[in-house]
Amino acid sequence: MFATYLIGLREGLEATLVVSILVAFLVKSNRRNRLPHVWLGVGLAVALSVFFGWLIEYTSTALLNTSKQRELFDAITSVAAVVFVTFMIFWMRKAARSIAGELRGKLSDALAVGAFAVTGMAFLAVIREGLETALIFYSAAESAAGGAGRGPLLAMIGGIATSVVIGFLLYRSALKLNLGKFFTWTGALLILVAAGIFKYGVHDFQEAGLVPGLNNHAFDISSVLDPSSWYATLLSGMFNITPTPSILEMVAWVAYAVPVMALFLRKPGKPTAPAKPAATDVPAPAPQRA
């Protein structure tokens, strides 16, 4: 449940910050009459995201007839979720400083066009977060406990609710939060979650019979890590750490987690100063006589 709570908190706060930037820009520029159009775009994005999440679940449970088809579907969605998580983490780290200015510029252009453009701009600004949340949530919930129970869904809703409260307090200047450190810590945790999702995807490919080695276990720590214990449930739900993983599962986990974490935690290099133009030997023109 903590994994899905973290997903809801991280993605929800990103979407909340985007909306707060748009709202603050309209309020400060005395364009409050356009606020309903922004909220309409946000509402449409949320509705489409919920529908997308329902469609994924419906496809898995109602449209796929055999266990092999469901395993393959879960494997594909897991890999897609890992791709989205990785892109989102690195994109947010790169665009965090410039996203406010870019959003204000796009909203200014939309205001010049009309109400429909404002709604469309707000929709596009939020829909990416919503679709990512739906896909990542489904994969994380499936990898944690086969999607059983309402716990993961309630945890994600709790994470989104928490992000809305934090975003509102930030907007009202009632809360100070180091967003750089917040996104760094949550990004590192999400990389570990994504590694677990990737491991689960490889396991599903093996279950579907497309990848060999399902019964070739890397190790067996079931005597130490009791699957029925609370800490085993926590490790399995958060990072998909299981007592008897296959060799290929562990290779996939390490192959993703180690390089991605190293790249994410690496400090970006300082921008180099522009080179000064080389001096030329061309003599200055002689002053002209009057």
TrEMBL record:
Annotated segments matching region Disordered: 271-290
Any single Pfam family the record assigns to this protein: FTR1
Comp. bias intervals (Low complexity): 271-283
Keywords associated with the record: Membrane, Transmembrane, Transmembrane helix
One of the record's GO molecular function terms: ferrous iron transmembrane transporter activity
Membrane topology reported for the UniProt record: Multi-pass membrane protein
Principal location listed in the UniProt entry: membrane
Coiled-coil stretches noted in the UniProt entry, renumbered to this chain: none
PANTHER family linked to this entry: IRON TRANSPORTER FTH1, PLASMA MEMBRANE IRON PERMEASE
Family the UniProt entry places it in: Belongs to the oxidase-dependent Fe transporter (OFeT) (TC 9.A.10.1) family.
Protein name: High-affinity iron transporter
